[in-house]
Amino acid sequence: MKSLIRVRTRAIGIDIADHTLSLVELEKKASRIVIAGFVQTRIPPGIVVGGRIRDEEKLSEIFGHALSKIRPRRKGSDIGVFGLPERQVYVHVFHTPAIVEREIAKAVEKEAAETFPLEHGDMILASSVVRQDSNESSVVLLAIHRDVLREWHLFFTRMGVSVPVYDSEILAIYRGLKADITKGPIALVDIGAVTNTVSIFDSHGMIRYIYSFEGAGDALTDEVAKTSHISIEEAEKLKRSLDIQNPTTDMGSLLPSFFDRVREEIRNGIAFFETKTQHKVLRIVCVGGTSNIGGLMPYLHESLGRDALIGESGVLNGSEAQKGQGIEAIGLALHLIQKNHIRKDPFFKNPTEQELQTATRTVERKNSGGAASATLQRPEKFQDIQKEKKTLRQQIAILFLILVFGGVAIGGAFWYQEQLQKKNDERIRALTPQYTSTQSVRISVTLRIPSRIFRYPIPSLPIQDSMYAEAIQSLRRQLNDNEDYWRVPINSLIEPATTPVASLVYLIFDKSALREYVKKLIDNGNSAGIAYDIGAIEYLSVSQNTKENLFVLEILVQISSQAPIMLSPQDIRN
User: Fold this and answer.
1) Residue 325 and residue 7: Cα distance in Å, rounded?
2) DSSP annotation of 463
3) Structure-derived torsion over alpha carbons of residues 285, 287, 293, 296, reported in degrees to the nearest 10
4) Rounded distance between C-alpha atoms, residue 454 and residue 450, angstroms
């Protein structure tokens, strides 16, 4: 299928995040790749939220204006590569005994079903065998909800931009880095506006570990604003002048405490990779605007014992991208210009008409601002609506007979039909969930709910990838219907570092009880009594409360409601 994507001499990398938009057009001239256009701009809050379009009209204006700056006299459609929002794309690396090409699809389907929290009918997959020898095949697997891909596809279609490739953000960032930076295993740290992502790439350029967590640049800006009692705009400017190794009196310990978690997540990722592969991570490469905080690279170097540097692009020399920004858009455009990436990296193509039609669970409507929005109907209420409509059709049929056989009652029948229609419309509207707001809330949950430990004995050292797969399969066979588990072994939480590894240890917990507990916490802070539904719960990290000998699960909860629910840290505290 990938052979259908042809190499281009010009392509636009399109990077749209919740708060920023970057467009980079690259042109290949002989053996050189040069910049034909470069635009970066801010997106006001609320237009794109969590990687989903909330106000298409305003986003169209911003995107169209940025595109006109790159190609003011361009005729015909532009060719672009879009980086699907990291929060909407699942990236997974798995290893299997060496398989032939005809067996790959079956292996991918099986792995996706066991790994991703998406229904089979809602999931679109992309995969690529990035490494293979006589003993093992290594596969990078991407998954996305078909409604998300559909949403962005329709947006670019309306904008007149052809997007043959929908790419992964993290793969694009790695692709956009200078070649000498990517030599040897590296830890790639993307400090974004909303989320941070830690990824480990091995010496072959294959992603081996990826983990994302909340609390990025915007969160730091908010903390600076609160601490200094200034506006967000002023805080953004002040943040750029701060130095983690020389904090001002007003800032105190704000920067070290903020970056402590970033440092620990990098440490965990490195430890996980090095334990599995016995290969040392050579350097830490940071990208994103917040990576320019003064003293951050020396801080990471001293605390983690690795070289730390801000990522640079091999294309945008001397520009802002050299400071860790714009690299993703460059890497996106490179996907169509450098043929080796079309062959190697997994990506999503334009969805087919059948795939677009399958996405029937999404109900589009217009909100008060005229922007397209979407909400999922809850199954039980949807069934009630169907019953109401069926009853209405039956009643209208009876009225039709009255009209035919009772001419004298025509006027009254029409009046009755109109009143009946209004009454049923009101009842249907009452049954339809009027949820127009979506928010994500981060909660730390001390697992006082039912939880347990699962141990899988290790037959020999070093630990092989196949052992992790066997451990997960054994664990899943023992799960109850209401249970879920933390995907990574927690040996480091419950055993001293000097303890020989005799088994892989996993944490299992009651997901139904977790959801009920989360609901209680939200109810505590929902003093206005706003109607809401709890959607997806994403597991971010796990730690241990040594005082109570309990585990603490950091989660991200999606809430759909009639209006935003203002929750303070005290409201959702254990």
Assistant:
1) 25
2) P
3) -20
4) 14
